[in-house]
Amino acid sequence: MIRNFMLDLPFHVPAIVDVIHEAWWNNGKALGFKYAHKLQSHRADCTDEVVLPDAMIWLAGANVWAALRAWETGRYVQARDFSQERLENTYTSLLAVLEAQRNGSSAKYFNKTMHELYLKTIQLGRCHRRLRKQLDFPSNRY
Fold first, then answer.
1. Pairwise CA distance, residues 22 & 119, whole Å
2. Would you list the domain boundaries of the chain?
3. Tens of each residue's pLDDT in the chain, 142 residues
4. Which of 73, 89, 95, 127 counts the most CB atoms within 10 A of its CB?
5. 115 near 51, Cβ under 8 Å?
């Protein structure tokens, strides 16, 4: 059951994982690493299952939505300002999805799945480095 719940979470899609990784965990000096000690679990009985802040997840989702909107006509259309006014409905919708998952029928698995999201975002860099090495890509290419 937990495996299906994790796979069904919309925040675990590669695009969102990539955005979070690139924004917060892309190198050893990134802010995610700098402030990793401040990340906490939502559960007192699972303190080792640290999770990403909700706002980080919502912002990544809003970024993915904005990127999709830029290509919705089949051609790239430069977006207007990335502003609260323009993305408020998207942000609010993402908040509702996250809250439904946190408080829904599978709520007991929520912290574990959000911890898995955290692990995916920080491990992505290791995977990218390993893949570049295997394919002999120059390190500055990505």
1. 14
2. 2-135
3. 344 444 456 788 888 899 999 888 888 788 888 898 899 998 889 899 999 998 888 888 888 888 888 888 888 888 766 677 777 888 888 888 888 888 887 788 888 888 999 998 888 755 555 544 554 544 443 3
4. 95
5. yes
Choose among 63, 98, 95, 90: nearest CA to 79: 63
- What is the residue type of 104? G
Burial of 41 (0-12, 13-18, 19+ CB in 10 A): middle
Helix/strand/coil percentages in the chain, nearest 5 = 70, 0, 30
Question: Cα separations (Å) of 91 from 16, 60, 71, 114?
Answer: 14, 10, 19, 18
Distance, CA of 36 to CA of 40 (rounded, Å): 9
Tell me which residue of 86, 98, 84, 93 sits closest to 53, measured CA to CA: 98
HSE-up of residue 138 (Cα within 13 Å, Cβ side): 2
